[in-house]
């Protein structure tokens, strides 16, 4: 146990977060996502399991330690539901509330069509799989800087 760190934080997730640099992207996926296959193609090749967390709770845990990037047009992305375009589903609205509170001034959240999300996820730094059961509950978080 460490002081000042949420006791639900896992050692593997903390290690992955510590190795991220500015601009690196962390992929947070739901329980249906092909997490192992995607993780094997990322920079770290690492899949971190985060059981017992839905996507908004996982985002809150991660953003409690990791700043989001505001030097780019979007510091985070959510996966669009097939055929719905940029209309957020319930899981996205819940997560956007958390991201809105964590996004630095000037930062924004964007959306990606599912296949574009898969392609971008494979270029990320690593993958975190939570136990979110709502469909399309997948996000990409871009690490910012601490001033």
What would you say this structure looks like, in words?
This protein has 147 residues and is α/β, with parallel strands linked by helices. The protein has helices spanning 11-19, 35-39, 55-63, 90-102, 114-122, and strands at residues 25-29, 47-50, 76-79, 109-112, 126-130, 139-142. The chain has one domain: RbsD-like domain (RbsD-like fold). 31% of the residues lie in helices and 18% in strands. The protein has a 6-stranded mixed sheet. Strand 3, helix 4 and strand 4 form a beta-alpha-beta unit. The chain is globular and about 45 Å long.
Short description:
This is L-fucose mutarotase. The protein has 147 residues and is an alpha/beta fold. The chain is 31% helix and 18% strand.
The number of distinct structural domains comes to 1
Under CATH, the topology can be stated as: RbsD-like fold
**Strand runs, count:** 6
- CATH class division: Alpha Beta
Major sheet attributes: 6 strands, mixed
Radius of gyration: 14 Å
Strand content: 15-25%
Q: What is the terminal-to-terminal distance? A: 26 Å
What structural category characterises the helix and strand content? alpha/beta
Number of helices in the DSSP assignment: 5
Mean pLDDT, rounded to whole units?
A: 97
Instruction: Quickly give the CATH architecture.
Output: 3-Layer(aba) Sandwich
Tell me the name of the CATH homologous superfamily: RbsD-like domain
Based on the model shown, name its key terms.
6 strands; fucose binding; RbsD-like_sf; about 30% helix; L-fucose mutarotase; L-fucose mutarotase activity; RbsD-like fold; isomerase; 5 helices; about 150 residues; single chain; alpha/beta
């Amino acid at each position: 146990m460490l002081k000042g760190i949420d006791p639900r934080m896992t050692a593997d997730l903390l290690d992955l977060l510590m190795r991220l640099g500015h601009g690196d992207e962390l992929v947070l996926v739901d329980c249906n996502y092909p997490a192992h296959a995607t993780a094997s193609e990322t920079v770290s090749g690492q899949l971190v399991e985060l059981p017992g967390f839905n996507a908004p709770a996982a985002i809150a845990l991660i953003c409690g330690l990791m700043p989001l990037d505001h030097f780019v047009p979007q510091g985070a992305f959510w996966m669009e539901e097939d055929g719905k375009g940029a209309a957020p589903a319930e899981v996205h609205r819940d997560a956007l509330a958390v991201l809105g509170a964590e996004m630095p001034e000037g930062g924004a959240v964007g959306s990606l069509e599912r296949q574009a999300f898969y392609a971008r996820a494979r270029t990320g730094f690593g993958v975190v799989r939570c136990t979110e059961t709502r469909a399309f509950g997948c996000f990409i978080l871009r690490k910012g800087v601490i001033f």
